[in-house]
Structure formats: structure tokens, C-alpha cells
Specification:
single chain; alpha+beta; 6-stranded antiparallel beta sheet; two-stranded antiparallel sheet; 11 helices; 12 strands; about 40% helix; about 20% strand; globular; disordered N terminus
């Protein structure tokens, strides 16, 4: 069945998002994923009240930390555990970045206690050595042969020969069948987008329909290209709007915000396939599309649940390390030196927000 934009009832938002609560009908975890702006509005208007000053340190934050926004990305030819969605990242409050993550974990009901996440986060702040889960270690050591097979599998899912597959399964539609607002933007920006691909031969173009997640309303243009070795690749240009973190801190322009976030959350590593681009008044993030082996969209078996718990604890640790790299001395001392007191704040804030949204 061919996909059409109307079949997904697409609505596009290009700058900013509503702060009112949006229910997906898919459960609390899905609701939390789609409501980063609601959360940050809560932080701005009420949650910061009476918080000890040492716990209000700020710096570069993930912005919308949850299990689906961290995964294995192929960067300069090697798999790395990285923040894979930086839409809402930027300057923010460290404490509330972690609290948001903890609320999403609680909503998943996997048997992880907030205190377990907190202690793992604290380990990261202390920069203690912590082994990665074995399944994650294996993924990050994927061989070149397995990478090639995964790349082939990904291409076969979305393409046939030199063309994209347009269907409900791929969520791809022809540009001419995308919303008129998307077509207008495409007509205005396509030549400049193509200039970013000047080292490739462009084979086909598509509009990507996404109906879930916090960036469900943002336009995504896909290009099927081939390189000088006749190898095919899929490159996405994702239109970006204001981040949720902009509600609590003034942010830099998109290109410089991405540079700062990647300096921390990507350890400063650069890969020319990942680029923040400004075209007129619009911002795009360019990235290669590929198979990600860390995939917790469906957590069904006991093995899935166990691996998810291990992964979430490691993400909490990773978030702590990213804060430690920025060296907010008073904040680290507050968490590390007075763990019982700081945990009480975390526990209270997680429960307050969960209680608030359950009543909406």
C-alpha cells in the first residue's frame, strides 16, 4: 500500500512547540516523549522553587533524555554510544535534565528504582570506572563485515534499486505527495540541500513521515545517493525548530548550539556526515541513516527487559560523566557529598511531575 501524507494526518510545526500537555493514547512513556516542552515549562514556572542553589547549576544538557534518544551511531566508521537526538538539547539545568530522564524510566515500569539510576548517575559524576553492559560492548565492537551486512539490510528495507520504496511500512512518500507546506519548503531549499551532497550522485528523493516522538511534526527530507565507489547511502535533512531547553535558558543559534552540544555529548568528535546547516531562516540537521543495533522501541521478553535495565543504568552513568566533563564543582559536591539530601530532591521532583501529568 502506498503511503500518503494524508493517511498520517500530518501537521507540521517549524518553530517552537506548544507547552500544553499532548496525550498520544499510547501510554505514559509515549506521552512523556512527546511533551518535552511541557516538562520544561513546568521547570521554568514552578519546579525550581525552593531548590538549593547548588543544585541549580547549568551547562550543556541532553534536553530530552530517554531510552530511545541514546544509541549506537556509526561515527567516522566506528560504533559509539551517543545522544542520537539533539532537537531539545542545549544549555539547561543539570538536575532537571536527570529528573526528566528518571521520569521516563519510571513510566516504563521495568523494575528500576529512581535510587538505582541516581547512584549510577553519581558514579558518573565521580568519574568512577564502570563497565558497559556486555551486549552493548559487543555492539560497539561490530566487525566491518557485520557493518556491511547491516547497511545492506537497511537499504533493502527502504529502497529497491535506485529508488525509494513508498509505503506505510517505510513511512516514505514522494515529495509531490507530501503536505503542501513541506513542498513549498522543499522547492525553496532543495538546491542548497543538494549542494551539501555535492560529493555524491543523487538517485532519488523522499519525504519522511513520522507520527510519534517529540519531533513527529518536523519535516524530514531523504536522499538516496551513491558515492564514488557506487555504494548507496541514505542521507536525511531534518528540519529543526526551537529546543525545549529554550524555555529555561537563552540558547545560541542552531549551528553553534549543535557544536556546543556535540563538544560534550559527542566528546568533540567531528564527522562530516553529521552537520548543522542554516538555509535562510530555516535550520536542518544532516545525518546518515543506518541500522542502530541498540533498539528498545519494543521491550517484550525478559531478556529485552534485562538489557533495557542495564542500558538505562549505563545511560544514567553516561549522563553523569557528561556533567563531570563540564566540571560544575558546587553541583558535583552537592550530589556526591550529600547524596541522601540531593536524592530526596530528585525523588520528590520525579514523583511530583509524574503525579501532575497523570491527572491531566
Amino acid at each position: 500500500m502506498a503511503a500518503t501524507a494524508s493517511s498520517y494526518q500530518c501537521r507540521m510545526i517549524f518553530s517552537g512547540k506548544p507547552t500544553d500537555w499532548h496525550s498520544t493514547g499510547g501510554g505514559l512513556f509515549d506521552d512523556l516523549r512527546e511533551n518535552a516542552f511541557h516538562y520544561m515549562n513546568w521547570v521554568k514556572n514552578s519546579a525550581k522553587e525552593n531548590i538549593p542553589q547548588d543544585l541549580l547549576a547549568d551547562g550543556q544538557t541532553a534536553g530530552d533524555a530517554h531510552i530511545l534518544n541514546f544509541s549506537d551511531l556509526l561515527i567516522n566508521g566506528k560504533r559509539k554510544l551517543r545522544l542520537n537526538d539533539k532537537d531539545d538539547s542545549g544549555l539547561g539545568l543539570f538536575l532537571f535534565d536527570f529528573v526528566r530522564f528518571a521520569t521516563t524510566v519510571k513510566a516504563q515500569r521495568l523494575g528500576l528504582e529512581t535510587v538505582d539510576l541516581f547512584m549510577s548517575y553519581r558514579q558518573g559524576l565521580l568519574e568512577e570506572k564502570k563497565d558497559k553492559p556486555k551486549f552493548l560492548e559487543k555492539i560497539l565492537e561490530t566487525s566491518k563485515k557485520d557493518e556491511a551486512e547491516a547497511h545492506k539490510e537497511y537499504l533493502e528495507k527502504y529502497t529497491q534499486g535506485k529508488k525509494f520504496i513508498f509505503s506505510d511500512e517505510t513511512s516514505l512518500v514522494e515529495i509531490s505527495k507530501s503536505p503542501e507546506s513541506a513542498q513549498k519548503i522543499y522547492r525553496e531549499d532543495v538546491q542548497k540541500l543538494k549542494r551539501e551532497l555535492n560529493s555524491y550522485t543523487i538517485l532519488d528523493e523522499a519525504y519522511r513521515v513520522k507520527t510519534s516522538g517529540g519531533s513527529r511534526n518536523q519535516a524530514r527530507f531523504w536522499f538516496l545517493v551513491k558515492d564514488n565507489n557506487d555504494e548507496k547511502h541514505i542521507i536525511e535533512f531534518k528540519l529543526s525548530g526551537e529546543p525545549a531547553t529554550s524555555l529555561v535558558r537563552k540558547q545560541k543559534d542552531f549551528v553553534n548550539r549543535m557544536k556546543d552540544v556535540e563538544e560534550v555529548y559527542w566528546k568533540g568528535e567531528k564527522d562530516p556526515l553529521y552537520r548543522a546547516i542554516r538555509i535562510g531562516e530555516r535550520d536542518y540537521y544532516m545525518r546518515p541513516k543506518m541500522k542502530e543495533f541498540v533498539n528498545f522501541k519494543k521491550i517484550e521478553s525478559e531478556k529485552d527487559k534485562e538489557q533495557a535495565r542495564e542500558f538505562l543504568l549505563h545511560v544514567a552513568y553516561h549522563m553523569g560523566r557528561m556533567v563531570a566533563d563540564q566540571n560544575p564543582t558546587s553541583y558535583i559536591q552537592a550530589i556526591v557529598g550529600e547524596p541522601e539530601n540531593s536524592f530526596r530532591w530528585v525523588h520528590r521532583l520525579v514523583n511530583e511531575y509524574i503525579t501532575l501529568v497523570k491527572d491531566l
